[in-house]
Amino acid sequence: MAQMQFFGLSYEEVVKKYKQTVGAVCIMRLKSYADAEDCFQNTFFKLYRNPPDFNDEEHLKAWLIRVAINECNKHIRNNKRFVTLENDCNSAVFFPEERCDMSWALLKLDDKYRQVLYLYYGEGYDIKEIANLLEKNENTVKTLMRRGKEKLRKIYGGENDE
């Protein structure tokens, strides 16, 4: 069997390149490292088992994010429970230290804000791309961004800060 190639990258190189992105999407959605690891593995297994035809590398990245989100949603549906994550950036599997400062605050937000803000600030997607990835209206994404930023300001500034 020939080795899979994705725009000059082997399967192993794709995993290495996008593990932070897929891992962070799973953590942001599930707030549980163990559950996130399962969805992370399922995402890359789907790529290995039955890779679609990608237009370019950005399409590959978007596909991985969409599959990770779907895997997390499926996990939530199947388990109907959430495990809260301890605020311990030193044990964070998927966040490098320079991202840890924002990560703890994002984990305190509701999922709807957390996903949008992570994709915007953590992955650099614009509003239209986030709307496509999350299958939401662009105006909905803008509203979630605005409200999420307000909630982040309260987290960073304290509950009584106005």
Describe the structure.
By secondary structure, this protein is an all-alpha fold. The protein has one domain (9-157): PhyR, sigma-like (SL) domain (Butyryl-CoA Dehydrogenase, subunit A, domain 3), CATH 1.20.140.160. 68% of the residues lie in helices and 2% in strands. A two-stranded antiparallel sheet has the order 1-2. A hairpin with a 2-residue loop joins strand 1 and strand 2 (9-10).
Which characteristics define this entry?
2 strands, two-stranded antiparallel sheet, Butyryl-CoA Dehydrogenase, subunit A, domain 3, mainly alpha, 7 helices, 162 residues
What secondary-structure arrangement, pairings included, does this model have?
Blueprint: E1 5-6, E2 9-10, H1 11-30, H2 33-49, H3 57-79, H4 97-106, H5 111-122, H6 127-134, H7 138-157
Antiparallel strand pairs: 1-2
Helix pairs in contact: 1-2, 1-3, 1-5, 2-3, 5-7, 6-7
Brief description of this entry?
By secondary structure, this protein is an all-alpha fold.
The CATH architecture: Up-down Bundle
Number of helices: 7
Question: How much helix, percentage-wise, in residues?
Answer: 55-70%
What portion of the residues fall into strands of 2 or more residues? under 5%
At the fold tier of CATH, the topology name is Butyryl-CoA Dehydrogenase, subunit A, domain 3
Total count of domains:
1
CATH homologous superfamily descriptor: PhyR, sigma-like (SL) domain
Q: Which CATH C-level class is it?
A: Mainly Alpha
Helix-strand pattern: EEHHHHHHH
DSSP strand count: 2
Strand order of the largest sheet: 1-2
Briefly note the structural class of the backbone. mainly alpha
Give the overall silhouette.
globular
Mean pLDDT, rounded to whole units?
83
- Which stretches of 5+ consecutive residues score pLDDT under 50? 81-99
N- to C-terminal separation?
61 Å
Report Rg.
Answer: 16 Å
Main sheet record: 2 strands, antiparallel
